[in-house]
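Action item from last week, closing it out:
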Amino acid sequence: MAQGSHPLGVTYSRLPSTSTATFLNNQLVIARNRDEVLISDVFDAETYDPVSKSFRANAGSNDYIVALHPYAEGQVLVFCRKSIWLATAAIGSDGVSIDPANSSLQLLTDEIGCSARRSIATAGVFVFFLSDNGVYRLDNQFDLKLRGNTQPLSDPIADRMAEINAPAAHTSNAVYFNNRYYIAVPLGEATEPNALFAYNMLNQAWETVDTYGFGLDRLLISDYGTQRRLFASSRNGKLFLLDELESGTDDTASGLGSTDVPGLLLSRRYGWGSMNAKRLLRAKASVVLPAGASCTLEAVTQDFDNDFQIAALTNSTGAEEDYTLKAPMRCKATTLDLRWRTLTGRPILRQITAEAARSSMDPTETRTLN
């Protein structure tokens, strides 16, 4: 790092090599090494004072800085691998050095850290990021203090988050767009992001997870026609526009032709208020199928365990049609899950239910307590 003489008589350094930086209040904030943060001069991103305009985050620990993220009122979030800090660096009256009296470094949490630099996204008073245990959200409470929740935001889909390839998790990237937090992650043995999760801020729930045959190396927001739209780009030179087709199909990775997008919906578990065996009679579903669309209805039973298809339906007419799908099951089980699959097109499921017959008198159960 080159040294030089500043016009004000202080020692300064030229821009050091770094992979983590953020722009804040007309200054560039960079991570010089694993725990040191440097702040450039105002309107001069190449000049740094390593003595008067620097600070350390979690110095001396087995931790390192993953990302720097701007926050409100001139503050910077310092995301380390195992902790998160909130830095307030106020510039003194000389315009060069940090004012110690008005500056602070606050530990938000040392229970979680950030595992992917580009997974951080701001949505109003919330800051989303990916950690080892899934997606977390920092909340700005009514007292204007930023706090972290020990329970991950992705806890309802923890089984899917557990599929993230940990060695490649650092390639994950995210954006906040159209009231949704989109995050692309590598699932299974993938070494680049191949799945896209969407969290809806309006209904406070995870909406979808879509898998792709190419790497979602960067999610982008840009203009398309007269609207702002979400794009997914890949290092192999492909650029895809998301949420465009209404037909339930995707363009192929080569850009020639299209492929159907299958969907799956698993119902709640039916027990009919008893843990005893029942005779499963039939399943009913009210569906709307566009022209050429098809779907299947499947049953997953427990005690006796079974997994089988109840019915399949295809709309071979040239117009959209409403159907009431009724299909017998004719088996015994204790509980039942219904699984509805969309194979082609965009079928709509309006209502689904199942019928079962219980014995006139359930067996009397006894229990011996020691």
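Closing note: The domain at 3-261 is CATH 2.130.10 (Methylamine Dehydrogenase; Chain H).
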